[in-house]
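User: I'm designing a mutation panel for Transmembrane and immunoglobulin domain containing 1 and want to avoid disrupting the core. Could you give me a predicted structure to guide residue selection? Please restate the sequence first so the numbering is unambiguous.

Assistant: Good idea. Sequence first, for numbering, then the predicted structure tokens:
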Amino acid sequence: MKLVLRDLLFIFCAAQTIGVRIQSDPASSGGVIQTELKTTVSLLCQPEGSAETETDEELVWLRNGVMVSLKDDNKIGRSSVCVTPVIYEDNEATFTCHLSNNATRRASITLNVTYPPELSGSAEVSVEDSADLILNCDIWANPPVSSVLWTLNGSEVDLVAGRFTVSNDGFTGRLSSTGIERSLHEGVYQCTVVSPMYGTFSKYFQVTVTEKTIKFPLMPMIAGIVVVCLTSLLAVVARWRTFVKCFKSCKN
């Protein structure tokens, strides 16, 4: 009989176990919320189970494992968190809600913030003949851009003839060349990227190659002038002392 009562008590306690759930706006899919920059995401956490309708359970929110500060009236029974406006740093941020007295009773949700590359407009670039040319395009986006294309005067750049090097680290697309020549490198460059979600973006660079200027070594020149001035000053002082001695001798 005691064994039966103990089993019944265990079943009753199991039925009373309270977990938590998170509701979101916009709705999540598989624990992930798809959203964009400058939008608002609302999260609501509440206990669930047989006592879901009435409970005095205290709730705790974490953002990437760090506790979120909540007002006292936003902890008991149900608790909400609002992310507004959504920024770059919110991408892949995970919000977790759990019971204050039982951290194993928890639920989590992750933000996937999408944004296009900030690539537009034009820029004027002036480079001296025989110097190095470096052009940068901001290609940072989520999802990442699928392609980066460089053109010169409407045609795809000739990497071999123009001695160009192309690089892409996921944040910046770069076109560079050393020892540029006016006949090969002057013109209008275009950086074009394709986003699988947001489409095509471009930026133009008007590159002008100028005559090479003769650069004077400024610091050695200043040092030379200082030495000459000090030498002249010492010579004047020496001559002045000689003059004074001679003047005294003449008076005597």
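For picking mutation sites, this is relevant: Residues 122-210 form a domain with the Immunoglobulin-like fold (CATH 2.60.40.10). The chain has a mean pLDDT of 85.
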